[in-house]
Amino acid sequence: MNVEYFIAKKLFSSKKKNNSFTKPIINIAIIAVAISVAVMLISIIVINGFKKDISSKVVGFGSHIVISNFSNNNSYESEALNASLELKNSLKKIKGIESVNAFATKAAIIKTKQEIHGVILKGVSHNYDWSFFNDNLIDGEPIKLDLNSKSSDVLISEEISSRLKLNVSDKLIMYFMQEPTRVRKFNVKGVYSTAMVDFDELYVLGDIKHIQSLNSWTENQVGGFELSISDFSQLDQITNEVYEAIPYNLNAQSIKEKVPQIFDWLDLQDMNVIVILILMFLVAVINMITALLILILEKTKLIGILKAMGATNWSIRKIFVYLAVHLTIRGLIIGNSISLLLVFLQLKFSIISLDPQTYYMSTVPVYFDFSQIFILNISAIIICYFILIIPSMIISRISPVKAIRFQ
Fold it and tell me: Is the pLDDT of residue 113 over 90?
């Protein structure tokens, strides 16, 4: 058996009541470690939730990669490109691409008896992946598009529904500002809500055939292609491969390039987490160093006896480092329990709400990455072990004779 660990375990489990001053200090150190760990874990889990939730919403509206014509046109009107079979096949051959969907957009105005509201009609093809909008559907049904017929069903957001007093099965009229002005009647099939207010108040989802008809396009002309990929971490690499594969007159943009402000904001949150981790780690380490020094001071007489019996400085130092690491592990267990309980309550009951206008979501999101939680805990134990060796060096300065006589 490891003698140093055995002695450390006995010291930790000691029930003697003559250490009334030391016990509160040790408890404070454990509580400090627990709170620090809880704050670090909650920070990581919440930021992961923010990044995953917002990224999925932005990608849901615009896909991972968008192919369109090179243009200086900053309006919401798509410019036609030919959806050749050769182009589609070349895109599908690129490793990592899961789907290729045609789309087109057109600016419009919805008019009701009381209100008018500017929107973007996003037309999609029959093979469009509706999973994102189906997950965020709060009323009605998903749209079903057919290759051989034109559907007048549309999805509108809760924001538009509330503003224009439109419900499922209502008719809405869209005006398209072109020469001459065109008018189309649509049927509200469903209402979605993503809490991404900037997007929700703009987008209406419908059949691409309406935009092709309004723009006098053929069925092979579309506004662009949306590409979904399997691994978001490979986004930049796959975007470059797509750019090299398409004709010279087309452009490929990743979602990060189309809405850089959102992803820059998410990257800024990573920096905030790093600052929190450093501060909380320093709090935990300082408290553990303090507790270790107090333990050494209290057990000075024991140190003298062990030295007199022939124990080396390093052997005695290991006893107190083991003891301090034992306290650290207890703090980690308590901290993990607190953080996981709070995260579970937030996940189950959405206790903390947010302003969607600012945060793009109505409640604080959480996302478990157990590998990060495991790495954080193991790193805390390893780093504390090596850092706590430094204050234990004071043991080498203790004289056995003076230590035994120490009161």
Answer: no
Alpha-carbon span 295 to 302, nearest angstrom: 11
Structure confidence by residue, pLDDT tens digits, 196-251: 988 999 999 999 999 999 999 998 899 999 999 999 999 999 999 999 999 988 99
Other Cβ atoms less than 10 A from the Cβ of 143: the count is 20
Smallest Cα–Cα separation from 150: which of 184, 118, 183?
A: 184
287 Cβ contact list (under 8 Å, min separation 6): 28, 29, 32, 33
Length of the chain counted residue by residue: 407
Place of tokens 């007093």: 165
Rg (CA), the chain: 31
Calpha distance 49→43 (Å, rounded)? 10
> Which residue is listed with tokens 């004289």?
399
The residue type at 49: G
In this predicted structure, which of 122-126, 142-146, 322-326 has the lowest mean pLDDT? 322-326
Q: How far apart are CA 191 and CA 195, in angstroms?
A: 13
121, amino acid identity = L
CA nearest neighbour of 65 among 265, 211, 250, 261: 250
- pLDDT per position as a tens digit, 293-333: 888 887 888 888 888 888 888 888 888 888 888 888 999 99
Per the listing, tokens 């990592």 go with 96
Contact 373, 295 (CB under 8 A): no
Pick from 43-57, 74-88, 312-326: least confident: 74-88
